Amino acid sequence: MTQQKANPGQRRKARRLAIQALYQWQVAETPVTQIEAEFLTDNDMTKVDKEYFCELLRGVPKFKSEFDDLIGKYTDRTNSQMTPIELAILRIGTYELIHRIDVPYKVVINEGVELSKIFGANEAHRFVNGVLDQLAQELRMPEVKHNKQEP
């Protein structure tokens, strides 16, 4: 997994497509490999961080149980009480907080909030923001602490 200097716009598009792909995976229970092939074929990927899209699409299902346990600590909702979009956004955010230390936690939270404003229900962004913020405090405590100390 090479971690080169990422283009924020291409990453943002990768996350958008990953949300849609993970939604399909959750709702239709289509195999990830099939969804990946469909998305890579059916979408213009020239302005998308394709590697990042594939990493998110493969990584989230791989660690789903671990992520759901972590998310469950910071919400009083069960998975079935969350919308599939909220769940996909929280799972991607959790993936990034754990497996992509090169992405600052504030970026993870902001991207999750923005995705929930685009795809989620009316107040979904508040819910996503609260859960990701608490996850960041647990999973990235040194980074969060350091940011709070800066003037």
Automatic annotation (TrEMBL):
Domain (NusB/RsmB/TIM44) spans 12-136
The record lists the membrane-crossing segments as: none
- Cell inner membrane is among the record's keywords: no
InterPro entries with a match to the protein in the record: NusB-like_sf (IPR035926), NusB_fam (IPR011605), NusB_RsmB_TIM44 (IPR006027)
Q: Name one GO molecular function term.
A: RNA binding
Instruction: Say yes or no: keyword Transcription regulation present.
Output: yes
Gene Ontology terms: biological process: DNA-templated transcription termination; transcription antitermination
Tell me where on the tree of life, at the top rank, the source sits: Bacteria
Gene3D superfamilies (UniProt xref): NusB-like
Q: Which GO terms describe its cellular component?
A: cytosol
Q: Pfam families from the entry?
A: NusB
What keywords appear on the UniProt entry? RNA-binding, Transcription, Transcription antitermination, Transcription regulation
For this protein, the record's PANTHER family field holds: ANTITERMINATION NUSB DOMAIN-CONTAINING PROTEIN, N UTILIZATION SUBSTANCE PROTEIN B-RELATED
Family the UniProt entry places it in:
Belongs to the NusB family.
| Chain's role | Involved in transcription antitermination. Required for transcription of ribosomal RNA (rRNA) genes. Binds specifically to the boxA antiterminator sequence of the ribosomal RNA (rrn) operons.
**Name of the protein:** Transcription antitermination protein NusB
- Designated gene of the protein: nusB
